[in-house]
Amino acid sequence: MPQPVRLRPEIASLPPYRQGRQADPEAFKLSSNENPFDPLPAVVEVLRDSLQVNRYPDAAAVELREVLARRFGVTADEVHVGSGSVAILSQLFLAAAQPGDEIVYAWRSFEAYPGLVTVAGATSVQVPNRADGGHDLDAMASAITERTRIVVVCTPNNPTGEIVTTHEFESFMAKVPEDVLVLLDEAYVEFVTDPDAVNGESLLERHPNLVVLRTFSKAYGLAGLRVGYAIGPSYVLDAARSTAIPLSVTGIAQIAAIESLKHEDELFERVGRITRLRDQLRQALLDQGWDVPRAQGNFLWLPTGEHTAHAAQVFEAAGLIVRAFAPEGLRISVGEAASVDKLLGAAAELVRVV
Ligand code: PMP
C-alpha cells in the first residue's frame, strides 16, 4: 500500500506501548504489575448499580477529587484525576515541555516515559541507574540544563523495585531550580515497607514545583478501569486539566475509585499479603543465588542479562508470563500464591545458566 499521508517522522517510527504477551490463557500473568485479587464485593456492587452509560461522566471528577482532597489534607484544586496516571504524565509533559525542551528521567524506568516525551515533541535525557537499580539522583541533578522543564523520579522504580529515600530526595530537591517541575511517580507507594522511603504526601507543602502521581491500578486493583490522580500546586494541575482529552475518566472509574477509598482497610490487608509474599520470594531467590535488588513495589527484578530472552521462555514454559527487558533482566509481578512454586522452580533451573 502507498503511504502518502505525511506523519511526524518521530511518531511514525515510535512503537506503540507493549504489554506482556499471553499465548496460554491458563498461564499466570505476571507481566503488568497488576493486583491478583478480584475487585472488592462492595466495588462490584456499586458498579452494578451505576451502569448509566448513556450519560457523559463528570468531566471534572468533582466528587472523587473532593474525597481525595480530604484524605490528603489539600484542596480539590490541588488534586487532578486522569484516565490512569499515565494520562496525567502525558498531560503534564504537554503542559510544561515544548519541542526542544528536555525531560530528565532515570533509565531503566517506566517504559511509557520515552514515548510520552516524544509525543510531546520534547527530548528525553535518560540518566543510567546505579548498579543497585536505584536512581542516581546526583547525576540526574547534574543532567539539568537551561532546557530542562521536567524531571521524573519514579519510586519504587519500575522495573527494578528500588526506592528513593526521603533524605536522598530532599538533597536532590535542593539542587533542582524552582522553575523545573518534579514529578514524583509513586504508582507503587502503597507497597513500600521501608521506613526510609520518600513519601510525596508530606513534602508537597515544602516544594512548590512538586507533583505527586498515584494510581488506583495497583494497590487498589482497578487497572482495567483506568483511573489515577495527581496532587500538587493547583496552577500546574490546571494546566494538566487543559491538555487533558475531555471526559476521558469514565463515570464507573470515578465511582469505583470513591468506593475503594471507603474500603482501604480491606484493600491494604491484601497489599500486606502481597508485600509479605514479595519479601518471601525475594529471600528465596537470594537463597538460590540470584542478585535481586531490594524490591519495594509489587514486583521483583531478576538480572538475567544477555540470557533474558531465553529466561523469559523458560518462565513461559513453566506457565508464567513475565516482562523481559533484554539485555538486562526480567520483571516479575508478585501474583497469585499458586504461581510461587512455578516461579521458584523456573528460577532454580535458570540460575545455573545465568
Ligand atoms: N507509573 C509507573 C511507574 C507505572 O509502572 C505505571 C503502570 N505500569 C504507571 C505509572 C501508570 O499506571 P496507570 O496509568 O495504570 O495509572
From TrEMBL:
Give the GO molecular function terms: aromatic-amino-acid transaminase activity; histidinol-phosphate transaminase activity; pyridoxal phosphate binding
What EC number(s) does its UniProt record assign? Answer: 2.6.1.57
Q: GO biological process: what's one of them?
A: L-histidine biosynthetic process
Q: Which cofactor does it need?
A: pyridoxal 5'-phosphate
Aminotransferase class I/classII large domain sequence ranges: 28-345
PROSITE patterns xref list = AA_TRANSFER_CLASS_2 (PS00599)
Its UniProt entry gives the catalysed reaction(s) as: an aromatic L-alpha-amino acid + 2-oxoglutarate = an aromatic oxo-acid + L-glutamate
Point out residues bearing the modification N6-(pyridoxal phosphate)lysine.
218
Alphabetical keyword list: Aminotransferase, Pyridoxal phosphate, Transferase
Q: Does the keyword Protein transport apply?
A: no
Protein family (similarity comment): Belongs to the class-II pyridoxal-phosphate-dependent aminotransferase family.
| Subunit details | Homodimer.
Q: What does this protein do?
A: Aminotransferase that catalyzes the conversion of aromatic amino acids and 2-oxoglutarate into corresponding aromatic oxo acids and L-glutamate.
* The protein's name: Aromatic amino acid aminotransferase
